């Protein structure tokens, strides 16, 4: 048997203290072999399992590809296959192996599972290597294009709205593949290909913004690629890409020149707030738009800033008679994950200098923990006391401690803010703790 095949079986199939039937492997002439697995103890050699595999499966024609279903398999996968005929065909092709596990008597079958074969392991590894090589070439093509465009005279006087975007694209033009892979500028779940596509979109937008004051989404890809289908190049990730564009540039998409998106992002709040073109008094719930936040500068006389995840919490607290006025509170609802306009609003009111403490209140689930982290990042650079509201109405003032508390809570419990809303007495106590 091939040493590499034995190494694969040892690493992914055999458990600690187990070994293959070496004598059988050395003498068998079988095409498809049943190889016994033994466990050695101090006194015995006990039969614990058996694998059925094609011994030379990895030597078959390399150009053949496995069934698309098998492309998702991992080395540790233990599959149940109802179609035995199909399973045997895959075993005969070397794509999979059959693993039997025996009870203590070494005869009674305890379980039957199908495992990744060495041929499939090799194929997926080669496929991944080729995919990464293509991704490296994609990055190189982007970087060459970025350096060529950003070095032209028309990019020297780029519009003020896109200067932060230009800074990031300029930095990415010198990244290694590993730096792109590990960059915290992107959502962690984004693939390399998706990250590079976003970099192309950013570069295309910068190019178009230097030529036009206003443009449509479709114009970005059409002008950049200059071919049929170019207008649809970024459509698959439109909403995610626009959200990250706004985060990188720290302005709404409309301020970048991007029109015809058909939506405005609101921010609902209650409390005293003053801008250059508008002012609001504590009382009912008010709303700002992402466009007004981008173009105005807001300040407040409030001393306590509440940042809550859900609208129901905002409406309930603001409805409490005179609570907002009497406690000098400003309450803002982020409606889920933090958007760039919301972050800008938060930083605007914190810069006004009157805020002494920030109360962060999100759901008690996985998303709520992520949102709590996003809110914490938005306020941490300011000299204010930060408090996280716990499900039992206690308070935590350390982000690390709150993370530990949430991870322990999530082992058994998930709650929405509305389930532990409390009343004015509790809310005042949180302010004064």
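Q: What amino acid sequence fits the structure above?
A:
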């Amino acid at each position: 048997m091939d040493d590499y095949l034995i190494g694969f079986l040892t690493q992914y199939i055999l458990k600690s203290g187990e070994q293959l039937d070496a004598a059988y492997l050395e003498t068998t002439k079988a095409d498809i072999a049943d190889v016994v697995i033994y466990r050695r103890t101090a006194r015995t050699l006990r039969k614990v399992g058996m694998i059925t595999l094609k011994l030379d499966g990895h030597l078959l024609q390399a150009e053949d590809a496995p069934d698309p279903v098998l492309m998702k398999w991992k080395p540790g996968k233990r599959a149940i296959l109802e179609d035995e005929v199909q399973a045997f065909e895959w075993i005969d092709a070397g794509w999979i192996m059959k693993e039997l596990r025996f009870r203590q008597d070494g005869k009674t079958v305890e379980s039957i599972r199908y495992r990744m074969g060495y041929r499939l392991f090799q194929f997926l590894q080669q496929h991944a290597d080729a995919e990464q090589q293509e991704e490296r070439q994609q990055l190189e093509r982007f970087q060459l294009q970025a350096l060529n465009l950003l070095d032209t005279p028309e990019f020297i006087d780029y519009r003020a709205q896109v200067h932060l975007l230009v800074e990031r694209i300029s930095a990415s033009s010198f990244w290694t593949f590993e730096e792109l892979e590990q960059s915290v500028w992107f959502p962690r779940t984004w693939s390399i290909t998706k990250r590079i596509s976003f970099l192309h979109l950013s570069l295309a937008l910068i190019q178009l913004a230097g030529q036009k004051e206003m443009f449509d989404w479709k114009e970005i890809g059409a002008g950049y690629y200059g071919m049929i289908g170019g207008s649809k190049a970024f459509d698959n990730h439109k909403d995610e890409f626009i959200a990250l564009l706004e985060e990188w540039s720290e302005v709404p998409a409309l301020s970048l020149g991007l029109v015809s998106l058909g939506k405005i992002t609101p921010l609902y709040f209650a409390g005293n707030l003053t801008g250059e073109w508008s002012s609001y008094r504590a009382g009912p719930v008010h709303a700002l738009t992402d466009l007004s936040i981008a173009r105005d500068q807001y300040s407040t006389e409030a001393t306590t800033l509440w940042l809550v995840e859900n609208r129901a919490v905002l409406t309930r607290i603001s409805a409490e008679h005179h609570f907002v006025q009497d406690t000098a509170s400003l309450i803002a609802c982020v409606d889920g994950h933090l958007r760039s306009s919301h972050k800008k609003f938060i930083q605007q009111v914190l810069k006004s200098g009157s805020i002494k403490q920030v109360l962060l209140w999100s759901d008690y689930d996985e998303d709520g923990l992520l949102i709590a982290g996003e809110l914490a990042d938005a306020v941490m650079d300011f000299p204010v006391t930060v408090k996280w509201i716990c499900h039992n109405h206690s308070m935590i003032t350390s982000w690390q401690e709150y993370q530990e508390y949430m991870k322990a809570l999530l082992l058994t419990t998930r709650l929405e803010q509305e389930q532990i809303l409390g009343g004015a007495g509790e809310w005042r106590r949180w302010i004064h703790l």
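Q: And what stands out in the fold?
A: The chain has a mean pLDDT of 89.
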